[in-house]
Amino acid sequence: MVRLPLTPLDLERGLRLGRVLRSARGDRSMLDVALAAGLSPETLRKIETGRIATPAFSTVAALAGVLGLSLDAVWAEVDTGTPGADAHLDPTSGIVMVSEPRGLPVA
Q: Could you tell me which residue, 78 or 84, shows the higher pLDDT?
């Protein structure tokens, strides 16, 4: 299978995803978050720095779950750089949170 080269938009989205995840991680260690999500710390480091610009959905979902983020809010930040209509920005952390995504409580 031949993988197409990433576009500049893909690369920018990867950088934004990394910033969102790094911000959400806060003071938690990279090791703790990575292991809780079932990833290696090296993979998490590459995602946070944008070296893995298009991680698998299951990887993003696992990280979002561990970090208590809604996938809708993560995508709103990554796709446009601005919160979605149903999201709000936590002024203390800069993390976009959704209080009730799709009827499920945020962890």
A: 78
> Please, which residues have CB within 8 angstroms of residue 13's CB and are 6 or more apart in sequence?
53, 54, 78, 79
Please tell me the pTM assigned to this model: 0.72
23: its two tokens: 């911000």
Question: 98, 87 in Cβ contact below 8 A?
Answer: yes
pLDDT band at 84 (very low <50, low <70, confident <90, very high): very low
Q: Which long-range contacts (CB under 8 A, 24 or more apart) does 82-85 make?
A: none
How is residue 102 written in tokens? 């799709």
The H-or-E segment that residue 73 falls in is: helix 71-80
Distances (CA, A) of 76 to 5, 36, 94: 24, 24, 14
Q: Is residue 45 within 8 Å of 84, Cβ to Cβ?
A: no
Calculate mean pLDDT across residues 4-29. 94
